[in-house]
Amino acid sequence: MRPYDIIKKKREGKKLTEKELDFLIEGYTKGEIPDYQLSAWAMAVFFQGLDEEETASLTEIMAQSGDTIDLSKIKGIKVDKHSTGGVGDTTTLVLAPLVAACKAPVAKMSGRGLGHTGGTIDKLESIPDFDVSLTQKEFIDSVNEQHIAVAGQTGDLAPADKKLYALRDVTATVDSIPLIASSIMSKKIASGADAITLDVKVGSGAFMKEYEGAKELAQTMVKIGNNVGRNTVAVISDMDQPLGFAVGNALEVKEAIKTLQGDGPTDLTELCLTLGSQMLVLGEVAKDEKEARAQLEEAIDDGSALEKFKEMISNQGGSVGAIEDLDLLPQAKNKLEVKASTDGYIQRIKAEEVGISAMMLGAGRETKESTIDLAVGVKLAKKVGDEVAKGEKIATLYFNDDQQLKEAKEKLLSAYQISSEKPEVAPLVYEVIK
Ligand code: URA
Ligand code: CA
């Protein structure tokens, strides 16, 4: 077998065999096949696509390329949740304790943020002393005893995907449906969950800008999951504006706590109830979505969801005091109000621009090596559909270092589109794909 022939075959739109894919991906992961050949192959896939069988093979090959996590010592059906990436996506912080309070085991491994998107692990580290590095035994014991553990990724999960994703990132081959689907699902399969709930984002702030593409991505991932024996459901949700109001680590922790208290933003609350319902049904804790939703609402109303969050924090060494008194979380020294430049209605809030603005203030990493400031970020004051007057506050920037403040403010202003007509507000949840 020669990489050249495999590239050419795909370039001509022909179907690759599992053996060919395995040869290519394994050779690449081991460093025997160079970047330039995989780049050409990825570009051929970008234009010619992969069919269902090829996508399934690629997923399995990448899932098996490194460590796989064994969660079989945890009782019950382990349901993982994954978002295709968003800005100010605080859902995991809310969902993990909410679902665990309903007695579904939550064994969550999360990552750090990069670029304009945040990571759950960074967010949790804004809680003083919270420890995200658990041993395998601590992780499993916590889930068995408290129904919950959230830890940083350990082991070398799907290294083939890691290498290929980095290559796609610099060769304009990220936004290919079969490549995204196999990338995400390979990691989910390697991390050992029994069932998977996917939050597929659509809109200006997402990989998939259009509904049709998001739906195809969702269907592709659901098929992969179900074919490898992991019950998978996908919720297609809006990312035409950031979720909730807060974008930034400690700011989002505060927003998550408010949501667990029943006092959070409507969109964030609704998305958590929708995703949570799917998780409880997949986990066989509730018989249908209606029953699941009632259980989740009850956990918020009776305080058990917030209690579960505190239990997790304390179990992983964190300061529960900071949950009870939010002023003890990292606070930015300064803030700057950003004001509307004209009268009208908020038409759109480009999520990516808001994320970049928060990153410029120090909330996100420009490169993997950058250090971040957990206290800083952006809080939106107006969302799509709201009316504003010229000079009225649309957002607040929280910052410690004013080096890029001017750019961050301009970025934020460029995120907001204001027009004279009242827009139609997109639905938050479009569809559930099973
Ligand atoms: N997220 C991933 O993990 N992989 C992709 O290809 C795109 C988004
Ligand atoms: Ca948010």
From TrEMBL:
GO biological process, any: pyrimidine nucleobase metabolic process
Domain Pyrimidine nucleoside phosphorylase C-terminal: 345-419
Top EC class for this record: transferase
InterPro entries in alphabetical order: Glycosyl_Trfase_fam3, Glycosyl_Trfase_fam3_N_dom, Glycosyl_Trfase_fam3_N_dom_sf, Nuc_phospho_transferase, PYNP-like_C_sf, PYNP_C, Pyrmidine_PPas_bac/euk, Pyrmidine_PPase_CS
Pfam families: Glycos_trans_3N, Glycos_transf_3, PYNP_C
Xref: PANTHER family: THYMIDINE PHOSPHORYLASE
Subunit structure: Homodimer.
Protein name: Pyrimidine-nucleoside phosphorylase
